[in-house]
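Key result, reporting period 2: structure in, sequence out.
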């Protein structure tokens, strides 16, 4: 981090000497190890080491950007010259420029996100093989494997700008995954499981990952059709996260200033049930996306995105905020650690409360339009009858309109999937169109 910090300062000095009124630079170095095995044999072992520099300069309100993967002095000098040359030929943009100087972070803490794993290739292979063997050996109906993998990475980055701000961050990420196939012929089904964490101590054991993958794969065997109709739809936690993602896309600054969002001009309005709440917690210890500053150096703060079902604010960086005549929310680069409040215990209790309907455990396609709010996606999961899982279902389409779907949410579970920066449990939508058999 010290080396990258020194290089960042040198780049900013070069920008000033060439006449730039403002400049910002991001530098990063990443290293990782990835292995994949299949059917007890090693398929790939890959060790990576990447670096990058992204530079943006401003001549008044004219902007130029350039990047390089070479940290040598000559390459950095050429990158600065190219960015400045571009800026001199661009049109002025009234919204261009660094974030406001008074918004720069001053409390540059770390949040327990640095946990290097001294994992060599042999150990990584052994972990992946152990996980796959546990899954394949769980049941005779497990007929094949799509493979297992182990992954570990470390990343160091520095952001600096001509306000005098310089922030350095470091983080780690580790994961273990297994994908299995059960059945034979046209009756084959595939499913998977994975564990991921910032610290290897927080990963599930390889045997647990393999057995969970086997359990999920086996329960998808022998799917049966259901009739087309309107039903309650319960999204499992890892699928519920996508609904929150659609909401974030609709309240992001880029969509709003382009007037390409179904939630345009909805700040301060009811968009979810009165009990619904989403909070952003960027300083959460060991949070997957904890940070003291955003991608522009603006200090991050705890805040509510939705309270009592009312949209409290948008998700803005300084450029989109200026385009909208608003103020940055410290979200350049995205949100940090969203917590969706629960009002129910978990998936099993929510299924019992639902009584009869569809549990979605897989979604396919990209059929969510955040411009119009139309929603239509392929789905698979389980039919629930009498509050219990009756049988698996697949080749379905679920459809609705996101504004109505959000208001029709009846429950959010406490069974949170911790493998993402969006912490949300199962979500029950009271009614959606489900296309199955005619």
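The corresponding designed sequence is given below.
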């Amino acid at each position: 981090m010290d080396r990258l910090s020194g290089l960042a300062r040198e780049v900013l000095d070069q920008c000033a000497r060439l006449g730039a009124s403002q400049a910002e630079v991001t530098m990063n170095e990443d290293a990782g190890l990835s292995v994949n095995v299949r059917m007890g044999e090693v398929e790939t072992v890959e060790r990576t080491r990447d670096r990058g520099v992204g530079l943006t300069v401003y001549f008044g309100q004219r902007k130029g950007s350039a990047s390089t993967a070479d940290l040598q002095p000559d390459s950095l000098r050429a990158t600065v010259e190219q960015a400045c040359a571009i800026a001199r030929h661009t049109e002025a943009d009234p919204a261009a420029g660094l974030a406001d100087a008074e918004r720069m972070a001053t409390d540059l803490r770390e949040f327990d996100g640095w946990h290097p794993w001294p994992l060599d290739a042999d150990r990584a292979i052994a972990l992946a093989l152990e996980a796959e063997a546990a899954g394949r050996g769980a049941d005779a109906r497990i007929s094949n494997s799509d493979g297992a993998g182990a992954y570990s990475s470390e990343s160091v980055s520095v952001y600096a700008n001509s306000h005098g701000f310089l922030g350095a961050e470091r983080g780690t990420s580790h994961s273990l995954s297994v994908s299995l196939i059960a059945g034979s012929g046209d009756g084959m089904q595939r499913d998977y499981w994975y564990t991921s964490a910032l610290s290897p101590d927080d990963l599930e054991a390889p045997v647990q990952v393999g057995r969970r993958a086997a359990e999920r794969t086996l329960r998808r065997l022998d799917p049966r059709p259901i009739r087309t109709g309107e039903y309650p739809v319960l999204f499992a936690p890892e699928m519920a996260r996508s609904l929150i993602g659609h909401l974030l896309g609709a309240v992001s600054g880029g969509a709003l200033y382009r007037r390409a969002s179904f939630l345009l001009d909805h700040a301060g309005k009811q968009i979810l049930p009165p009990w619904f709440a989403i909070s952003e917690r960027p300083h959460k210890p060991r949070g997957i996306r904890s940070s003291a500053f955003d991608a522009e150096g603006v200090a991050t703060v705890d805040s509510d995105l939705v309270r009592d079902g009312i949209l409290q604010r948008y998700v803005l960086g300084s450029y989109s905020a200026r385009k909208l005549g608003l103020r940055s929310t410290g979200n350049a680069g995205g949100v940090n650690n969203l917590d969706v409040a629960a009002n129910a215990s978990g998936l099993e209790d929510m299924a019992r409360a639902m009584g009869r309907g569809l549990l979605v455990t897989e979604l396919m396609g990209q059929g969510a339009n955040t411009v119009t709010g139309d929603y239509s996606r392929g789905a698979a999961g389980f039919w629930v009858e009498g509050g219990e899982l009756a049988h698996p279902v697949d080749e379905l389409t679920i459809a609705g309109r996101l504004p109505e779907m959000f208001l029709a949410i009846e429950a959010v579970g406490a069974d949170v999937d911790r493998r993402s920066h969006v912490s949300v449990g199962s979500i029950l939508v009271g009614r959606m169109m489900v296309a199955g058999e005619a």
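The first strand starts at residue 22 and ends at 38. DSSP finds nine helices and 17 strands in the chain. This case is discussed further under Risks and Mitigation.
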